[in-house]
Each structure stands twice: as C-alpha cells, then as structure tokens.
C-alpha cells in the first residue's frame, strides 16, 4: 500500500508517494536525495541516522516516513543559517571531534537536540535529584549515549558539545 504525503526537510517541502513500510531514513536518502543521515545498524542502536523532527531527536531508521506528514525534519545539512555553520558544527570542527566522519551528522543532530533538552531542564539518568543538570562530562556522555562512534572520537566529541553549550 502506498501513501502520498508532504514532509519538510531542511526547510524545503517534498511531496512523496511511498510504500507505507518506508522508513524516514530511506525516504531521505533514496527518495529525497539527502544523504546526511547515515544507515549504520538499521536497528536504532548506533544513532548514525539521528535527525531532528520538529526539534526532537529521532532515529530515522526506526521511524516510518508516513508518520511524518507535515513534520519539519532537520538533518545536519540544514542546521546552519545560509552560508554559516551551526555552533555545534563549528565546535566539532574546532575540537577535531570526528575521525572517519560517518557518525558525525547523527552526532551533531543528537547534540543539538540534547542541548535543547538540557536548556529546557530535562534531567538525564545521571542528573542528581532536585538539582539542575550541568554540562559535565558525565552529563553529556549520558545524554549522548545513543550515538556510537566506531573510531572512538568521544574524547573530542564531549568537549565539543560542552563548548557549544556554553
């Protein structure tokens, strides 16, 4: 069965007729031509496919595209203003927070969503009860635990996110 829908990706509307079983990741990569989100594990375990849907972190490999009618999807490509990098993107560059770069778009989208969650006061598993969460190493590491890096660039990823969050 197919469905016709409209989804906005990085500020542009896309009208698609897709199989109801198509994931958002596959719609982005195969139908829209946006290759920012990567297909890592295709099981929601690595975070390489992380995008922002209406500002919230979303694993696009586990999300059916048909559920995104009218949603605003933002990939790492759509984060910065025209001709400028988003502060998280700039911080990843400044802190050398990537090696092979495969996980980087998902890491960056997750970091942007995570910083928004932190700004809203949402606690994590390591936030002390009754206390406001700081952007400590443990706090950032816990909040980013769903995004894996096979190269092990965590020693630079966490400081990059902390810097961008200041």
TrEMBL record:
Domain 2Fe-2S ferredoxin-type: from-to ranges: 3-79
Keywords: 2Fe-2S, Iron, Iron-sulfur, Metal-binding, Oxidoreductase
Pfam families: Fer2 (PF00111), Fer2_2 (PF01799)
Pathway recorded for this protein: Alkaloid degradation; nicotine degradation
PROSITE patterns per UniProt: 2FE2S_FER_1 (PS00197), 2FE2S_FER_2 (PS51085)
An example molecular function term from Gene Ontology annotations: metal ion binding
Name the UniProt record assigns to this protein: (2Fe-2S)-binding protein
Organism field: Amycolatopsis antarctica
